[in-house]
Specification:
Layout (H helix, E strand, L loop, with lengths): L7 H13 L6 H7 L6 H23 L3 H133 L5 H139 L7
Length: 349
């Protein structure tokens, strides 16, 4: 049996190649032309069958008339021309499709590179936005802590202010009581002096006797008045100090309120910046996801284009093999007619 891959058609090709070079198509020569493959028995059988077929074909051709032979030669030439045109058209279409596929692959590769560059750019922008968002969030947290501390300090100042106000009210109450006591004492002394003056004339002698006692009483009362005046002056001084402290406390409270207002404004501005940064971050993440999807689609299209190019190449290879077979078959049909047109066939070596 013949080895795998050895066929009658391959033996015919090898024999025709040897005849075209002017060499004798012996079994060894055909075996060498086939790459030292195939058994000699199989090669001998195939060569004998080919020789018998050519003998029958020559006998059949000898029965044909010259016009029929000319018609066959003309048809064979026309067939060769049409086959050449079909093959050339297929080759042109194959080249055009190949160029189109190559251009499409190049375009997809460029788009893929552009998408990759855009993805990298958006990744960098997203990282920057995320860094800014984290920085703004840290500043926002710090400002919240400062606002909380300021609120606590403001509450403490309010408590101190309330204590100062209560102390001031207490001092004013004491001062009022002291003024009332002094006024009452002055009124009582005045009334007593008026009564003593009315009774002065009737009680001159009695007053003279009691002058020493009244003088002593007056001294005691004067000491009491002096003490009350000193107490009043001390209370007035304390009231003045309390008013100064209250004014300082009010100024501190006003400053704290201004600071709290500025902190509130800064806090609102940070909230706005935080919302804007969050919006930009979400937009960047959405764009990143969209570009990732586009990148995947481009990759899939590129893979499909490459597969299509491979399939097209396989089809072109199959067409080329079919073209080669068609040329060989056409050569097998044309050769006897051409040989007969040129002259009688040469004897078989």
């Amino acid at each position: 049996m013949a080895r795998s891959g050895i066929s009658k058609f391959r033996v015919q090709q090898a024999r025709d190649a040897l005849l075209a070079r002017g060499e004798h198509p012996s079994i060894d020569a055909v075996r060498v032309e086939l790459g030292n493959t195939g058994s000699r028995t199989t090669l001998h059988r195939y060569l004998r069958e080919l020789s018998d077929e050519e003998g029958i074909r020559v006998d059949q051709e000898q029965c044909l008339s010259e016009p029929i032979k000319a018609l066959i030669a003309s048809l064979a030439g026309r067939l060769h021309e049409e086959a050449s045109e079909v093959i050339a058209s297929a080759q042109a279409r194959r080249d055009t499709e190949r160029q189109t596929q190559e251009a499409e692959i190049i375009r997809l590769a460029q788009e893929l590179e552009a998408v990759q560059a855009r993805v990298m750019e958006l990744d960098a922008g997203w990282s920057a936005e995320r860094q800014a968002h984290e920085t703004a969030n840290a500043n926002w947290q710090a400002e919240r802590i400062r606002a909380s501390e300021a609120a606590k300090e403001n509450e403490s100042l309010h408590l101190r202010l309330m204590e100062h106000e209560r102390h001031l009210q207490s001092l004013e109450e004491k001062h009022r009581h002291a003024r009332e006591s002094l006024e009452h004492f002055r009124q009582a002394a005045k009334e007593q002096r008026e009564q003593e003056q009315r009774r002065h004339e009737q009680q001159v002698q009695q007053l003279q006797a009691e002058n020493r006692q009244q003088a002593q009483t007056l001294i005691v009362k004067q000491d009491a008045i002096t003490h009350l005046s000193q107490e009043t002056a001390r209370l007035a001084a304390e009231l003045s100090d309390a008013r100064h402290q209250l004014q300082d406390t009010l100024e501190q409270l006003q400053a704290q309120r201004q600071t709290a207002d500025r902190l509130a404004v800064a806090h609102a501005r940070l909230d706005v910046m935080h919302d804007q940064a969050s919006g930009r971050l979400q937009a960047a993440e959405a764009a990143n996801r969209q570009l990732t999807e586009e990148f995947r689609e481009m990759s899939a299209q590129l893979v499909e284009s490459q597969l299509g190019g491979q399939q097209m190449q396989a089809q072109l290879d199959a067409q080329a093999a079919l073209y080669a077979d068609l040329q060989q078959q056409l050569a097998g049909l044309i050769r006897p007619v051409a040989d007969d047109a040129e002259g009688p066939p040469a004897p078989d070596a």
